[in-house]
Design goal:
globular; 31% helix; 7-stranded mixed β-sheet; FAD/NAD(P)-binding domain; 5-stranded antiparallel β-sheet; Enolase-like, domain 1; alpha/beta; 23% strand
């Protein structure tokens, strides 16, 4: 059978763009359909605009710290409209670059939604055009999930709307304890809003190392964020401009804006996967093997739509591995172990490898090295913020299996540390590396004393 395209990609986010460009440059006839804007979640409504908002929010703290170094800035003000205009101009520029790079690689860019008609056929919704393809890649990403069973949920916004705020709310209630909730708590607080963060668990950032979770949780509170734990929203009501969230534990919190940051779902709704015979899990994620192949041999999926590791660089590497394997005669799989993660909280988090709890469960005996200290910069500012650094070591061979940092520049530091962890560096390798002084990162190579939990210390 002759197909219209060798490869048809649904979604022009990071994974879809990388895969389509490589396949086209290898000689394949490729098309990409994108219903919104090229660049996907990361560029348009995720990593990039959120990082700009983090930058904007940090200046208030920097202005305060300047006094400790002899600087005084009088009558400093924040112009939200100017910032948002400049930010979205940059987003427009980046989105345009994504689209241009796709076209320059010889890919046909289709600005429409595509849905499956059968395993080889897709329909473009706007033009009602049908297209066939020999191979199909699903790269539709994820979308914020709002719990439909909560009364008044229509009064809340998702993270998507946070990138288009016309003004900073006086008081915002944020529901959730994951990285999106924590990051927006810091952003809104830094930009002058009073923030209440409510979470159903005991400590924020489920899945991260317990010391990291505690450190971030305490810093949120220290910086003025009201944190309510063991609280699940059951109802939202509105009186004038004020929205009140009623929680399962009887507490209430109100504000002029409510953000639900309770997770993201794979963006597969209405895609027609059943018509193509593609299997999904209970969450709606496309099920794939290690080569990103679905149960249908010529249909693949990469990125957040698979709900494996939902990070932009992972989607890019998965898309690259797919293109290399299927169109460049370079069989490749992406190793999902030891991927560095960051949370752009305030202070930020950088981690790679295993948590202490996971390492103990996997290996039994582990050694832990950790420290908390005030960074040198804050000795003159009076800020009581602490840096946390923690190294988790497999005892049997001294291999470093996890590094966890909370503090200034943690994401920048962890990127370099991830190379060492990925290569299998041992604690001895860290120890024989010369420190760079004075720096925060030097603590990683000067930690010598093992941390012993109180329950494991000998009784006296």
């Amino acid at each position: 059978m002759a197909f219209d395209f060798d490869l048809f990609v649904i979604g022009a986010g990071s994974g879809g763009v990388r895969a389509s460009r490589l396949a086209a440059m290898a000689g394949a006839k490729v098309a990409v359909a994108e219903e919104y804007r090229a660049g996907g979640t990361c560029v348009v409504r995720g990593c990039i605009p959120k990082k700009y908002m983090v930058y904007a929010s940090e200046f208030a703290r920097s202005l305060h710290h300047m006094k400790g170094y002899g600087w005084t800035v009088e009558n400093a003000t924040y112009d939200h409209n100017m910032f948002m205009d400049r930010m979205h101009r940059e987003i427009d520029r980046l989105s345009g670059i994504y689209a241009r790079n796709v076209r320059n690689a010889g890919v046909e860019m289709i600005d429409e939604r595509a849905e499956f008609e059968d395993a080889h056929t897709l329909r473009l919704v706007k033009s009602n055009r049908t297209i066939t393809a020999g191979k199909i890649l699903i790269a539709t990403g994820g979308t914020p999930s709002l719990p439909v069973d909560i009364e008044g949920i229509e009064l809340a916004v998702s993270s998507n709307e946070m990138f288009h705020l016309e003004s900073i709310p006086e008081h915002i209630v944020i529901i959730g304890g994951g990285y999106i909730a924590v990051e927006f708590a810091g952003i809104m607080s830094g930009l002058g809003a009073r923030v209440c963060l409510a979470y159903r668990g005991e400590t924020v950032l489920r899945g991260f190392d317990d010391d990291v979770r505690t450190q971030v949780h305490e810093e949120l509170k220290r910086k003025g964020v009201k944190v309510i734990t063991h609280a699940s929203p059951v109802k939202l009501t509105k009186d004038g401009d004020r929205i009140t969230v009623h929680f399962s534990n009887g507490e209430m919190a109100g504000g002029d804006k409510v953000l639900f940051a309770t997770g993201r779902d794979p963006n597969t709704d209405g895609l027609g996967l059943a018509k193509a015979g593609v299997k999904m899990n209970a969450k709606g994620a496309v099920i794939v093997d290690g080569s990103s192949r679905t149960n249908i041999a010529h249909i693949f999926a990469v990125g957040d739509v698979t709900d494996r590791v939902n990070l932009t660089p992972v989607a890019i590497r998965e898309g690259q591995a797919f293109a290399q394997s299927e169109f460049m005669n370079l069989p490749t799989t992406f190793d999902h172990k030891d991927i560095p993660h960051a949370v752009f909280a305030q202070p930020p988090v950088g981690v790679v490898g295993m948590t202490e709890a996971d390492a103990r469960k996997a290996f039994g005996m582990v050694d832990v090295y950790k420290t908390r200290f005030r960074p040198m910069k804050d000795m003159l500012t009076g800020d009581e913020e602490r840096v946390l650094m923690k190294i988790v070591v497999r005892a049997e061979d001294e291999r470093v299996v996890g590094v966890h940092i909370v503090g200034p520049d943690a994401p920048e530091i962890i990127q370099a540390v991830a190379i060492a962890v990925k290569m299998g560096a041992t604690k001895a390798d860290f120890d024989r590396t010369c420190a760079l002084h004075p720096s925060i990162a030097e603590e990683l190579v000067t930690l010598r004393e093992k941390f012993v939990p109180s329950e494991l210390k000998p009784q006296t």
